[in-house]
Amino acid sequence: MGWINSLYRSSVGKKSIMAASGMLLSLFLFTHLLGNSVSFMGRDAFNAYAEKLHSMGNLIYIFEIGLLTLFLIHIITGIILYLENLGARPARYSVNTSEGGRSWGSRTMPYTGAIIFVFIIVHLMNFHFTDKSVPVADMVRQLLGRPVLGLFYIFSLLAVVLHLSHGVWSLFQSMGFNHEKFNGLLLKGALVFSILVGLGFILIPVLALFSRSFLL
Amino acid sequence: MSEIRLTLKIWRQQGPDAPGRLETYESGPISTDMSFLEMLDVLNERLTLEGKEPVAFDHDCREGICGMCGAVVNGQPHGPEKETTLCQLHMRHFNNGDTLVIEPFRARAFRIEKDLVVDRSGLDKMITAGGFVSVNTGGAPDANAIPIPQKNAEEAMDAAACIGCGACVAACPNASAMLFVAAKVSHLSLLPQGHPERARRALDMVKEMDELGFGNCSNERECEAACPKGISIRNIARLNREFLKAAIFSNED
Amino acid sequence: MILDAKIPDGPLAEKWDRHRFQCKLVNPANKRKFDIIVVGAGLAGASASASLAELGYNVKTFCLQDSPRRGHSIAAQGGINAAKNYQNDGDSTFRLFYDTIKGGDFRAREANVYRLAQVSNNIIDQCVAQGVPFAREYGGQLANRSFGGAQVSRTFYARGQTGQQLLLGAYSALMRQVKKGKVEMLTRREMLDLVVIDGQTRGIVTRNMLSGAIETHAAHAVVLATGGYGNVYFLSTNAMASNVTAAWRAYKRGAYFANPCFVQIHPTCIPVHGTYQSKLTLMSESLRNDGRVWVPKNPGDKRPPAEIPENERDYYLENKYPSFGNLVPRDVASRNAKEQCDQGKGVGSTGLAVYLDFSEAIGRDGAPVINQKYGNLFHMYEKITAANPMHEPMMIFPAVHYTMGGLWVDYNLMSTIPGLFVLGEANFSDHGANRLGASALMQGLADGYFVIPYTIGNYLATISSGTQSTEHPAFKQTAAEAAAKISKLLAVKGKKTVDEIHRELGLLMWDSCGMARNAEGLRQALDKIPAVREEFWQNVTIPGSGHELNQSLERAGRVADFLEFAELMVVDALSRKESCGCHLREESQTEENEAKRNDTDYSHVSVWEFTGQDKSPEFHKEPLVFENVEPSQRSYK
Questions:
Q1: DSSP code of C137?
Q2: Residue ranges per structural domain of chain C
């Protein structure tokens, strides 16, 4: 297994690991969004969906451990890369301008990453490590209906959009996919994906905050 | 032809371990037909006559191909013009009264030798690690023995056009040398002559790059935008591909 | 001393083969006991270093840039010739040989030039094997173009960056040997002197350009590949750091200098536009394949080109030379451009330029075709001048480009000091009085890849393989002299910058020892040069110290040598009372004002020996014998 070690020690290897974990996390995010969308179908459907998930037993634990591992890999590797990159230019420039390559997404990756990390902890505290006997629809309404938490959710989910706007395109590049024919599609597709996913998620706190009938 | 006057803030540093700082100079009248380096020549002539030390900067061919010149002008390596080296950047692209901050290429792997002169030997070390085809002089087969599709040759040439100036490293927010390594790995992996060693080359060059203290690529695309030869980050994707193939599937260690 | 070029016997086509057989060999196990110093890492230096290291010698390679990938070979745009005859258009080794020797106006050695043509094909094979991305046809075969007046398509190219690609190929071979530990690469080192002990080359003295340290290096042989001396003119297409110092130091240590006045002036450069200008930029000669050269018929016509009607334009090359037209050799094109400007027909703000017009080619082939061929050159032109040649004619003017003269070498590329070999532009051997387009790259690589690996063995086999050391007093002595010269430069503390004096020398040389020369002008130059030199040593100012990176000091050292060397150039030019190759001697013209060569009196190499500071150099003559070609007066009518 020496090759995994040397892969992880190399810069390109670490990037590919960021890319692979990022891709799986994006897929998770997408399925999470599909699940959440059930909430738009009404209170009963949403509660039933949550019940169904909870009834999966050990399967859910295995999935959660896998997810946790993915997050840890993504976060730890990200922190290592961030620190290494910081060290690669100890003396900074007096004038900082862009050549025009960077985007808002790429520029803020470590910071949006950090926001998302805090967000996930808050999110888990509120929805995972909590009393599961309360129907999920009520939890969502009660928690996200609070202005501070609801707005924090919206803010964090905007960070997710920004993170994905660079991350989704970037993961293809890091894994070696870059083709003249498909680059335009890929760039636009990645942007559309991140905005759609973000909007889908954001809709929930927005409805919880502003809609009287949401999940009732 | 017209004349402009500029305020120049230039990084002055006596040696690698000496502290450095930005010094301010008035350029005096500068013809807009001058190149950026000629503008520095004019300043240096004046400093010399005033008994001061002129600004040290690397340069040689002054036609944009040797890759020796380069400084960061207002935060941009080789200045604001696209696909232009500093020696080919002409003063007509600046306005009267502009302030220009001129700094050396900065990276942990590029030690500052003096003023704007930096040590870019790391680039040579990465080539030494594997940026070649192992063929001795003599005994090469006829040049036309292996046909190479024109498109491949052109694409290889796109990558081989790298002049090794280091602007990609200077522009990268992470001081990564990926575009430089990618250009060489791409050039040789696109040609049949480079195939026998492609796995070894990708592994060795990336390893050397990491050991020299260059940063990691985070796909910011600044290198591509700064490259005076317009080398595309498509080459970085190709390097990633070559590297991952080599690291995961080849028998090389 | 009688100059023995050591040309092998036998028929021309067999000389090189015979010689290779007769060359003594160094036993493979013994090769690692020999140390070789290579100075310069352009095409010749890099290819020699790599090839010698591959054979097993210990090589130390020096360059003054920060990396061996920066030698000025990198700036060659057009291409490299080879007698492959891939186009089936009648090319052959003999034709390339003939074209080269004729192009050189019959002032080169037959045997050397034939060898060059012979190995030209191996160079292309070698470079392709290294991964040089030459231009290709759709079918995957190598593409060729006709270049610089050649009647066959034999030029291989990689866009407009052939020199770069070939150099990067040689550089990669060199770095491969660095990895193997067979080459020690020393960058930012400038050779200041040669160490000769008992008449044999033993090493060099260098200055570490970062620390200022004077260092000595010993070896069994020294290979100089230090390029040409075009910067004696201040403005040239050479890189800023190109210099004569290494060659000049070798000359002063006993190596003879051959044909120093043979300088090529390239016709297609971007015109000068101001006194601050630091260098001239060459536009590839391939532009003349499609561009038409013209000036207004009426002197002083200052209208913009588009407003000058067709019948008021003088396409002087096409009119004067109907069969070659715009593709006449470089010297003819250059001289005619200067002649037109001297008649007041020059264009542009300085009146020192002629038009190179692509409108007809654009009309004929369409803009996309022309753009594809020359787009990058046009782009480069536009960057410098802010004018686009797709819309208005280019302006061009001749500029100093290449020096055919150099240190004298025999067939083995060894100078008159045993153990000192000279390759590439630094030697004089292959181009006679004029170099054909796309032949410089060929010669640099021929010398480095395919000549020196054989001929150096022939020398090393005759000397002891004992360890060389820098302990010998001669090393200390030479190093002390180099250090003293630096101290002397720094001590002047005058009022003029190095560039000011260099510019003065350059103008003087351009006016008196340029494309056209005459005895009177040359004699005046001989009077003036010592005065400029005196001015330099009395009044130059160099800030900073010798113990640090000091670019003014570096330049001063080079200019000090140019100031001595210029005199030798003029002496040589004065002694050659014929027009030949690149230069017109005004006293030697035909009735039609064309150059008139004088084979009776000047069919020789002029070789100069240093006899002491402030003493006249001693003249030696190496007669040129033509057994295989009949020297003909060139005619491009």
A1: -
A2: 265-400, 473-599+606-612
CA proximity to C177, closest of C55, C301, C355: C55
Q: Report how far residue C191's alpha carbon sits from residue C189's, in angstroms, rounded to the nearest whole number.
A: 7
Q: So what's the architecture of C265-400 in CATH?
A: Alpha-Beta Complex (3.90)
Q: B14, B46, B63: which to substitute to probe chain C, counting the most C Cβ within 10 Å?
A: B63
Which residue spans within C160-246 are E strands per DSSP? 183-186, 189-197, 200-208, 214-218, 221-224
Residue-range domains of chain B with CATH: 3-111 (3.10.20.30), 120-249 (1.10.1060.10)
**A216 occurs within a structural domain:** no
Answer whether C49's CB lies under 8 Å from C183's CB: yes
User: DSSP state, C226?
Assistant: -
pLDDT tier for residue C150 given thresholds of 50, 70 and 90? confident
Q: At residue B1, does pLDDT exceed 70?
A: no
Q: What is the pLDDT of residues C73-88, one digit of tens each?
A: 999 988 999 999 999 9
Residues in A closer than 8 angstroms to B101, CB to CB, are 94-95
Tokens representing B38 are 């000629």
In the numeric block, which tokens belong to residue A105? Answer: 């997404």
**Cβ-contact B23, B9 below 8 angstroms:** yes
List of chain B residues whose C-beta atoms are within 8 Å of the C-beta of residue C133:
153-154, 156-157, 160, 187, 191
Question: Residues C27-71: pLDDT tens digits?
Answer: 999 999 999 999 999 999 999 999 999 999 999 999 999 999 999
Residue A97 lies in a domain: no
Residue C185 vs residues C38, C59, C601: alpha-carbon distances, Å: 10, 8, 46
Q: Taking CA atoms, what residue in B is nearest to A12?
A: B240
Q: Which residues span the domain enclosing A177?
A: 2-89+102-210
Question: pTM above 0.80?
Answer: yes
Residue written as tokens 């715009």? C326
Check if C330 is active-site: yes
Tens of pLDDT, residue by residue over C412-423, are 999 999 999 999
Whether the pLDDT of residue C406 is over 90: the answer is yes
Chain B hits for C70, Cβ within 8 Å: 60-61, 66-68
Query: Rounded distance, CA C179 to CA B197, Å?
Result: 15
In a domain, A96, yes or no: no
- The CATH number given to whatever domain includes residue A204 is 1.20.1300.10
> Smallest Cβ distance to B106: which of A13, A93, A178?
A93
With touching defined as 3+ CB pairs under 8 A, do chains B and A touch?
A: yes
Using the predicted structure, report yes or no on whether residue B176 has a pLDDT greater than 80: yes
A29 phi/psi in degrees, rounded to 5: -55, -40
Cα angle at C503 between C497 and C508, to 5 degrees?
135
The residues with which C294 forms a beta bridge, in sequence order, are C355
Is residue C2 pLDDT above 80, yes or no?
no
Cβ separation C124–B147 shorter than 8 A: no
Establish if A52 belongs to a structural domain. Answer: yes
CB neighbour list of residue A199: distance below 8 Å, 6 or more residues apart: none
pLDDT band, residue A215 (cuts 50/70/90): confident
The CATH code of the domain at C473-599+606-612 is 1.20.58.100
Q: Residues C504, C559: contact at Cβ < 8 Å?
A: no
* Interface A:B, Cβ pairs < 8 A: 150
Judge if ipTM > 0.90.
yes
Query: Three-state SS for C150?
Result: coil
Which of B76, B213, B223 faces A88 most closely, judged by CB atoms?
A: B213
Contact exists between C and B (3 or more beta carbon pairs < 8 Å): yes
DSSP-derived 3-state class of residue C406: strand
DSSP run (H or E) holding C395: strand C394-403
User: Which chain B positions have a beta carbon within 8 Å of A166's beta carbon?
Assistant: 219
State how many domains chain A has: 1
Q: Let me know: does A14 contact B216? Beta carbons within 8 Å.
A: yes
How many Cβ atoms are within 10 Å of C348's Cβ, its own excluded?
A: 18
